[in-house]
């Protein structure tokens, strides 16, 4: 192994020490940027746009590949905002990152206050515009309960792992 190879190997090892933070339905505007100094902060939408992802043509798996590529090629700590994916998608991303010695360090989710506010806003919109919305009565509440269950399941699934689930 030559000097160049040793340098590249050391460079790769140093590169892999980045912190990876993902958010589940937390937008870039809801992030306190000062808490994440030194992080590359990017929205999931911007990543997909960069790779010209088209959901009508490309698979969900391709979407996850683009997200993982952005993480793998990041030279800095990275925070990706506003992921709207399933719990199994986090598992898939974890597996895609493993060969590169990367882990998802944290997944940020909206805190209870923000979730309740969103529920109240949805209920208000339904009361004011139900004749134009294609929601059945109680659908707003069902969506809220599904998201609550998703967060609970996420916390349970990652309870004894390197990935921390935090409400912000």
TrEMBL record:
Superkingdom in the source lineage: Bacteria
Indicate what this protein is called per its UniProt record.
Uncharacterized protein
For this protein's source organism, the top of the classification is:
Bacteria, Pseudomonadati, Bacteroidota, Flavobacteriia, Flavobacteriales
């Amino acid at each position: 192994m030559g000097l160049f190879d040793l340098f590249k190997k050391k460079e790769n090892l140093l590169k892999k020490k980045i912190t990876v933070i993902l958010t589940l339905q937390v937008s870039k505007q809801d992030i306190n940027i000062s808490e994440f100094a030194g992080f590359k902060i990017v929205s999931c939408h911007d990543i997909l746009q960069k790779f010209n992802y088209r959901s009508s043509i490309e698979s969900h798996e391709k979407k996850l590949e683009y997200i993982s590529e952005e993480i793998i090629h990041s030279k800095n700590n990275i925070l990706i905002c506003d992921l709207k994916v399933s719990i199994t998608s986090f598992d898939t991303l974890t597996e895609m990152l493993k060969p590169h010695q990367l882990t998802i360090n944290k997944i940020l989710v909206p805190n209870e206050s923000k979730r309740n506010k969103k529920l109240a806003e949805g209920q208000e919109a339904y009361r004011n515009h139900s004749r134009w919305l294609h929601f059945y009565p109680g659908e707003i509440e069902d969506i809220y309960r599904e998201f609550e269950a998703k967060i609970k399941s996420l916390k349970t699934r990652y309870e004894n792992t390197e990935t921390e689930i935090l409400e912000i």
